[in-house]
Design a protein that fits this description.
The chain has about 240 residues and is α/β, with parallel strands linked by helices. It contains eleven helices and seven strands. A seven-stranded parallel β-sheet has the order 3-2-4-1-5-6-7, sandwiched between helices. The longest helix is centred in the last third of the chain and has 21 residues.
Length: about 240
């Protein structure tokens, strides 16, 4: 009962799928996040900020309410705050572009300072590979967005958990987890299935009906593992 009451009182969320660089797997995390939210009865709204290559929007644009917003500019951040207000208590999922770190550093405070008036909580799923710049960009993000929740997703595409040595033994990890964030290994999805999703612009739900049986089996495996990560990250 107490957990249900806490969930009812919890502010609506803005969830950033972020990583500050290209190729770390933000879009894959975003589609897994959307799928998990839908499965749990949420009605998320998609904000696609990768306006030059809007893969997630092309996959989920017909299934979800959505808005394309360029977060490289001050007008984009104004639009994001206003859109969050318009959407009331609905969850906003923001798929960020690789280049958005510059706009974030310049204008991200606008969102951070608006959170109390919006009555929203900002949760960031920060996706990393095994390279140092992933951590440097994460550190810069936390300087702009202090006192917000950040969970780190080590993308399993780049190897098993123990291979993320730079992050695993870092002070940055200690600081994130001391602040209430958590660290996860995000499950890898077989390339041939991932390629199907992105090249054919399919939602996970549609792919589970249309792909060959072996591909569907792999997608179900990934979907189940992804939901465990997402649900734990977003638990009260």
């Amino acid at each position: 009962m107490k957990s249900e009451e806490a969930a009812a009182k919890r502010p609506a969320r803005i969830i950033l799928s972020a990583g500050g660089k290209g190729g770390v797997g933000k879009s894959t995390v975003t589609i897994g996040l959307i799928d998990a939210l839908l499965e749990d009865g949420d009605s998320p709204v998609l904000v696609e900020s990768d306006t030059s290559n809007p893969d997630v929007w092309k996959m989920y644009g017909e299934a979800l309410d959505h808005k394309l917003i360029n977060l490289d500019t001050v007008d984009g951040w104004i639009d994001l705050v206003n859109y969050a207000a318009e959407m009331g208590g609905r969850t906003l999922v923001v798929n960020t572009a690789a280049r958005n770190n510059e706009g974030l550093e310049k204008f991200g405070r606008m969102l951070r300072d608006s959170l109390p008036e919006l009555d929203r909580e900002l949760v960031t799923l920060w996706v990393i590979n095994r390279q140092r710049d992933s951590l440097e960009l994460l550190k810069a993000f936390r300087e702009v967005m202090p006192d917000t929740t950040v969970h780190v997703l080590r993308n399993g595409y780049f190897g098993e958990e123990h291979k993320f040595e730079l992050y695993n033994g870092s002070k940055l990890r200690d600081d994130i987890e001391a602040a209430g964030g958590r660290s996860y290994l995000f499950p890898d999805l077989a390339d041939r299935v991932s390629d199907d999703l992105f090249s054919k612009r399919m939602t996970v739900h549609a792919a589970l009906k249309e792909l060959p049986i072996g591909n569907r089996a792999e997608l179900r495996r990934w979907r189940d593992a992804t939901r465990e990560v997402i649900r734990d990250a977003l638990r009260t």
